[in-house]
UniProtKB/TrEMBL annotation:
<feature type="domain" description="GST C-terminal">
    <location>
        <begin position="90"/>
        <end position="214"/>
    </location>
</feature>
<dbReference type="InterPro" id="IPR036282">
    <property type="entry name" value="Glutathione-S-Trfase_C_sf"/>
</dbReference>
<dbReference type="Pfam" id="PF13410">
    <property type="entry name" value="GST_C_2"/>
</dbReference>
<dbReference type="InterPro" id="IPR040079">
    <property type="entry name" value="Glutathione_S-Trfase"/>
</dbReference>
<protein>
    <submittedName>
        <fullName>Glutathione S-transferase family protein</fullName>
    </submittedName>
</protein>
<dbReference type="InterPro" id="IPR036249">
    <property type="entry name" value="Thioredoxin-like_sf"/>
</dbReference>
<dbReference type="InterPro" id="IPR010987">
    <property type="entry name" value="Glutathione-S-Trfase_C-like"/>
</dbReference>
<dbReference type="Pfam" id="PF13409">
    <property type="entry name" value="GST_N_2"/>
</dbReference>
<feature type="domain" description="GST N-terminal">
    <location>
        <begin position="3"/>
        <end position="86"/>
    </location>
</feature>
<dbReference type="InterPro" id="IPR004045">
    <property type="entry name" value="Glutathione_S-Trfase_N"/>
</dbReference>
């Protein structure tokens, strides 16, 4: 069986990171092909991806003759072929997990758009604006409540896609706002996620790359 996952530059491809994580967590074998999405080669490389994917972006999963070109679909597919352990079996709990998946997939209500995943790797990070800090705190509070509801240690109790889909968001916000004393459950959850072997594997390579500087970071 041929199973190829096209990902992107490790410190600039949060959506590919999300798609990649369930495969690693579930021990599913796949071939990874990293697409360099840094400028200027980004445009030509994504044009080539467009030859196999109508979305003209990464991630893309190609398995035999089938192409799956959406990160959320790839995550759910990995869960399906990996035994289904990354979604709760209870219908209500599964719906709560999918709420987090869908919310993140829709952009988390536009939360802190200038604090991109790329910015987590900048040496000279700027301070968050008051609006960004308020948005981050709203999300920290949401995580705190969900962990209290489930009993932890993850959002749905056991590790799930709801946790994995949020990993890049956790990384970019925690890099800018590490003080989480008011949300102890959420802080412990963040530390637990960052310590997972799969996350450390991706981040180790990401940190070794030159940072991708985005023009609007300091505007």
């Amino acid at each position: 069986m041929e199973r190829i996952l096209y990902t992107g530059t490790k410190n600039a491809s949060s959506w590919a990171f999300r798609a990649w994580l369930p495969f690693r967590e579930l021990g599913i074998e796949f071939e990874e092909r990293v697409v360099d999405i840094r400028k200027p080669q980004r445009f030509e490389n994504l044009r080539r991806i467009g030859e196999i994917s109508p979305a003209v972006s990464v991630p893309v999963l190609v398995e035999n003759q089938s192409v799956i070109f959406d990160s959320l679909a790839i995550m759910e597919y990995a869960n399906d072929i990996g035994g289904g352990s990354l979604l709760p079996s209870d219908p209500l709990a599964k719906a709560r997990a999918r709420s987090f998946l869908s919310w993140q997939h829709a952009g988390l209500s536009g939360l802190c758009p200038r604090l991109s995943f790329e910015s987590a790797f900048y040496q000279d990070k700027r301070q968050m604006t008051q609006s960004e800090q308020a948005d981050a705190e709203r999300l920290f509070h949401c995580w705190e409540q969900e962990l209290a509801h489930s009993g932890g240690p993850y959002l749905c109790g056991d590790l799930s896609l709801a946790d994995l889909v949020l990993v890049p968001t956790v990384i970019r916000l925690y890099a800018h706002s590490p003080e989480m004393c008011d949300w102890p459950r959420a802080h412990q959850w963040v530390m637990r996620l960052l310590a997972r072997e799969s996350v450390e594997e991706w981040m180790s390579e990401a940190k070794s790359l030159p940072p991708v500087i985005l023009d609007d970071y300091r505007k």
